[in-house]
Amino acid sequence: MEKQPQSRDHIARALIQLLRDGNIESLSKAIDSMEPRELSAQYRRLPRKRIPLFLETIETEKLISMLAFLNKKEQLHVLKVVGPIRSTELLDEMKSEDLSYLLSDLPDKQVEKLIAELRQEEKRNIRKRMKYPKDAAGRIMVTNYVWVHQSYSVSQTIDKLKHYKDFAHYLNYVYIINDEKQLIGVISYRDLLLAQPDECIADVMETSIAKVLDTTTQAEVARMIGRYDFVSLPVVNEDNILVGIIRADEVFDIVVSEANRDIEMLFASGKEIDFHTKPFVATYRRLPWLILLLFIGLVSGSIISRFEATLEAVVALAFFMPLIAGMTGNTGTQSLAVVVRGLASEDITFRAALKLILRELIVGVSLGIICGVVISIIAFIWQGSMILGLVVGSSLLCTLIIGTIAGTVIPLILNKFKVDPAVASGPLITTINDILSLLIYFGIATMFLSKLT
Question: Cα separation of 176 and 11, whole Å?
Fold first, then answer.
């Protein structure tokens, strides 16, 4: 059971005291009593100067398990703290796919330095993986899997599985290859156990295979696994030669990482910022977006200045400016969230995009009519002017339609041009919609100015 926050704080204080006192025996007992997930949580709570002794006290096997619960930046920090000798030991024991993920963002020189003391076979495997693009399936595939030749019988296949019992974590399907090592079939454990022992595996295998290329993007792999509820997927090269498998749990980390990155971009927070980010670093990462939005926002000010005469003639128009701009920005951001979420889980064709735009148009019109009528009544009761109510209501109707469409079309266009749609962040959509809403609002008000005054 996961520790409650209060208990976790108590453990942290106790660990810090043991580290401060240098009480290695008690510290070792405390560490042995904790699961790897809890160790990772305590690692994050420790003062930096206490971390070296903490890591030194953890047994290698447990430390490797703890690394699985740390992000890439934290893992690299651990390797730096424990020193070159122990870091080589840790890297040597890590699963190759986890190691490839850890090294994926590092310069080649740093990668070579880290893997210098690894076994030659492991180094070759890592270098082969690192040749794939960062987001390719080949980076995260598992190379420890069980395959059998098409000439095997069912009993021979079962005997081979028993021989490779160490791969039990990966044994969900058995993959069948031909003489050229091409993937020609697959069979599940269930079907294998139900088959007759003397039957040829080629006669009972499934030839309709869901598979991915080693160059397929990890996002597409995640979509396939999520859509078809697979436990794993075989990975082949362009010649249909089986080169690995991808497990669902490997994809889960990618989905979480991608979701976090999209959330950061949606809210224009820049690169990763968490509870431990230093103030000046957080400022530096957020500043470019805010400066950009600041200059775009100046356009709104220039629009208001252009319609200064309209505002002076009908001061009541100023009361509804924040409402018009705020409502437009909100509906645009809502549409943006819907589209970005859909793009992450669906293949958006031209027909699907048109259907989505039409649906959001209907939503925008419906919202605009309802909200426009409500605000028209409020404006009439508050200011006693039917024309003012008509101006405000019709402006809100138009801007909600435009805001909804903008929040839908912009991410679709970016996706079409292979740009991550999450860069169409909420603040950017909101700012653009502010400009459009003010133009529409004051444009309509100017048209009816003679009847408003």
Answer: 51
